[in-house]
Design a protein that fits this description.
about 350 residues; 7-stranded mixed β-sheet; two-stranded parallel ribbon; 14 helices
Length: about 350
């Protein structure tokens, strides 16, 4: 090979490397805004997949002007710490359960009153109820100053009771140290049924079950399986007391700083997240169920009589809630449930009409 030929190839190689370096630098510099998403859900859980769907959409459709950084599995803290970070502007987006933001806006616990929602159809319509969503968005924004509700989605399905002893009725859980979120509604419910409610942060639950700090938990089946909690809780009763409803929060300060076109990109990205969150958990449930059973777990489907033993836990929670916050939010959620039931009945009538 001649020196000229070698020099030419070296020059081409250097040019290619320089072009790649410049392109990389340009791509890094292209991001005008950063959207950090932090939450407590494990990377194996659907909520992390939902966040990844939004990340992909926002980065692609913003043309790289928004860089999205995703921090799952409690990397940035627990529910409260993440919400505080959104409030103070150090985190742009997070998610919580109702209980997870109750310290910032207590009336949201109306969504966690047990047995408010009969089935998935009702739940789907309540989550999409515009009147309810807009009211909640305005009230939380007023209460926090900068935490904006993006919307509600499904998480991983219905919450049931899991324990290290067989469970068929409420009496089987009497005295059991039951893990709850740090929410008075969850604690009042467990207490009303004779359990010993014990708040434990989600990242600490596995260790707490392993060491006997708690002997049960009220979670969705996917939560239990995806985080291997079924190493210690092998028995479940599918009473479906509450739905694992997820609230997605964004820094209003950050959102309002975006140009209008990028605000639209973020809104569309959340729409994609929403579609994923409301479809993926149901598709994955069978796999989780089979894994729980294959690991030695038992899921008891209660009869009407057995489920009735859990229902007395509802009224004390309603009484506590109304005494604490008044009836307004209970009435708002109940009105959304009533609208949902009316729509479902009309849809069924249309479906079967000759």
């Amino acid at each position: 090979m001649s020196i000229t030929s070698s020099s030419r190839k070296l020059a081409i190689g250097l040019s290619g490397s320089l072009f790649s370096a410049l392109a990389f630098t340009a791509s890094v510099q292209a991001a005008d805004y950063t959207l950090k998403i932090g939450h407590v859900s494990a990377v194996t859980q659907p909520l992390s997949t939902c966040a990844e769907v939004m990340k992909s959409h926002v980065e692609r459709y913003s043309g790289g002007r928004i860089e999205v950084k995703h921090y799952p599995a409690g990397q940035l803290g627990n529910f409260r710490e993440n919400v505080e970070a959104v409030q103070f502007g150090t985190l742009e987006m997070t998610l919580t359960s109702g209980g997870g933001i109750a310290n910032f806006f207590g009336p949201i616990q109306a969504f966690d009153i047990p047995y408010m929602f009969e089935n998935d159809q009702v739940m789907d319509k309540v989550m999409a109820d515009r009147e309810l969503t807009e009211r909640l968005r305005a009230d939380v924004l007023k209460a926090t100053g900068s935490v904006r509700l993006m919307g509600m989605t499904g998480g991983v399905g219905w919450r049931d009771f899991f324990a290290d002893v067989p469970v068929k009725t409420a009496a089987d859980l009497k005295g059991v140290k039951m893990r709850t979120v740090e929410s008075p509604v969850s604690m009042e419910f467990a207490r009303a049924l004779g359990m010993n409610p014990t708040p434990v942060p989600w990242p600490e639950l596995y260790t707490s079950l392993a060491t006997g700090v708690v002997h049960g938990t009220k979670n969705a089946l996917s939560d239990v399986v995806d985080t291997s909690l079924n190493d210690y809780v092998k028995y479940a009763v599918a009473d479906h007391h509450t739905h694992n409803l997820i609230f997605w929060w964004m820094s209003d300060t950050w959102l309002q700083k975006l140009p209008e076109d990028l605000q639209g990109v973020v809104a569309d990205g959340f729409h994609e997240l929403n579609k994923t969150c409301n479809g993926l958990p149901g598709a994955l449930y069978l796999e989780k169920y089979e894994k729980f059973v294959d690991g030695g777990g038992e899921v008891h489907i209660p009869s009407a009589e057995e489920k009735a033993t859990f229902l007395p836990g509802q009224q004390p929670v309603i009484d506590w809630f109304v005494d604490k916050y008044g009836s307004e939010y209970y009435d708002l959620v109940q009105a959304a449930v009533d609208r949902a039931n009316a729509e479902i009945e009309a849809e069924r009538a249309s479906f079967i009409k000759q």
